[in-house]
From TrEMBL:
Residues 460-617 form the Helicase C-terminal domain. Plays a critical role in recombination and DNA repair. Helps process Holliday junction intermediates to mature products by catalyzing branch migration. Has replication fork regression activity, unwinds stalled or blocked replication forks to make a HJ that can be resolved. Has a DNA unwinding activity characteristic of a DNA helicase with 3'-5' polarity. Keywords: ATP-binding, DNA damage, DNA recombination, DNA repair, DNA-binding, Helicase, Hydrolase, Isomerase, Nucleotide-binding. One of its GO terms (biological process) is DNA repair. SMART domains: DEXDc, HELICc. This is ATP-dependent DNA helicase RecG. It holds the Pfam family RecG_dom3_C. It comes from Thermospira aquatica.
Amino acid sequence: MYLGDLRSCSLESLDFITNRQKRILQKFGFESVYDLITYFPFRYEDRKEIASIEKSLLWQKPVTTIVRVIEHDHIYFQNKRHPKIIIQDDTMRAALVGFHRPYLSKNLRIGEKYWIYAQFTMKYNEIQTSSFEFEPYQENVQPKNFGRIFPIYRLPGELSLKEFHTILKKLLDSYLPQMEDEIPVYAVTGHKLLTKEEAYREIHFPTDQKLLYRARLRIAYEEIFGIQIAIQLKRRAVSSYTKPARYQKREKTDALIGELPFALTNDQKKAMEEIFHDLCSPHPMHRLLQGDVGAGKTVVAFFAMLLAAENHHQAALLAPTESLAFQHYENLVRMVKDRVDVALLTSSTTLAERKNILARLKSGDIALIVGTHALLQPDVVFSDLTTVVFDEQHKFGVEQRIALAKKGNHPDMLVMTATPIPRTIALTLYGDLDISIIRQKPSDRLPVRTHWIRPSEYHQMREFIRKQLEQGRQAFFVYPVIEASEKLELKSLEHYYHQIREWFKPFSAVLLHGKMSTEDKMVSLESFRSGRAPILVSTLVIEVGIDVPNATVMVIESAERFGLSQLHQLRGRVGRGRHQSFCFLVTEEDITPEGKERMEIMCRTEDGFEIAEADFKQRGPGEILGVRQSGLPELKVANLYDHRFLAMCTEDARRIISYDPQLTLPKHQGIVQGILRFLPLDYLRSG
């Protein structure tokens, strides 16, 4: 039995978990034994070393200590009586304040000794704590929850930590001895890794800090090694595909690029040459084009599409939203100037128009098509699709990429992202792709001046924006809408919209949010793009896909509620013209330390790669890049910033696939049965 097999072991079949516990666990998202065993503590309390109350005060951190209860007292808080237990160790007295814990006076008896884990502080002229754990002390008896490293899990309120520990111990005892190791024995011994059983016992119930570190290292190795094996196999499979010589000419494409009203950056030119080299290769292109906001990735993607058209083939660009698809379509039409047939296909395309587009696509009359998920429908048939471009690729799942790729014969694939990814991380998560990076921005772009605005500065900001509007400029106002309270938030957004209209009379404003009909969205966008409405009040739907060079102001309300990458994307909507642009990050006066850090980073730098590094460290790369969308397993332990560790896992996987490409050797059957069997097959086929 491998770890992945436990996905099919339902909690319903376990008689040592009560029906109440099962209901709570299932409501919290746990369905199988696998879900529980791979749910790791989010922190640990080291309760092994015994220290004093005095040391806790000096070190300003929690300690484990042995105390005697001296007396019972009480305090009044919010018109309620709460127990206060006076304790003493070898150094001093302190108070345990039991807010909403009326049972303490019964459980902590005067004269008895107890284990206590707490951080003590000086408050109201006494040493006290209100957050503490305790257990009766008995000579020569090992305590249950003290004298060891104690794991802490995020749990629903109805389930106690004690209950969860009991469940986990029984699960580990029942299943770990049966578990086979996916990692080859020579890799485990060569890297001096813990065995699988040792690692999973130690990460849940560590015996010491060194073994806990080694347990995390072992599980991190499993995660990265599994991803790299899949990537190496996929890369080998892709390189085995061959295609006919499709691209002999590029003169017309180069001429169209040369007619652009701006000069290409060196990074753009380099990316184009890398793409052309791939297109001329006997193997299909699989390339990731990444770059900062406003760095000009779209022109590079158009270059690949135009090459297909020039050589009498077809190309498709898939965008995640209608507004972005429409913008790409308009820009492409403007660029080709009626010299190439271009079409747009979205869910809003009329039935008659759709029928016409499908017929012309099938006959080959349409060379280039831009669309949304509508392009993935089974009745969308191409005559000769050779080039596929995905914009904001992490917003598309594996199945969607496969669906479009299957409409051609091993087409050349270009995936774009405006979320800059540190190269080491990109190679780990997208190692099956070649990578082109555009860091340079057009030389005529002025840096966007970013300011963090508190409530006391709001009026001053409004007056500044009015002057920008009077000079003929345009402004975005972005408001967060959270799905959990969408109806309430949309009401709030509309109130905010009416307020802005009042503030900036006589300048008109339009509203844009995800619940509007496509027609209403397009009307709002067109009013803003044309300048008839110089103010756009919007939700995150404008994160990508709106390019208005005359817009010079971006106001992000409740900016602390956005991640760094989102803030950077939003800021990238301005600064696209020749006028100086400004971004205002509006927050409450008092926000979290993490929120403050995000505001400071945004005000300090415009470098998307630096911002991405900070965002990954705050939120984790899986959440930002959509690792689940990629078909790869979720990373729960691995630290993608340990470059040497990543290199080690990658090299191990590369050597194994190079030595045993089909993984037929007995020593590699754990990889086949324990790793590949549980990856979506579509991931390995998606080349």
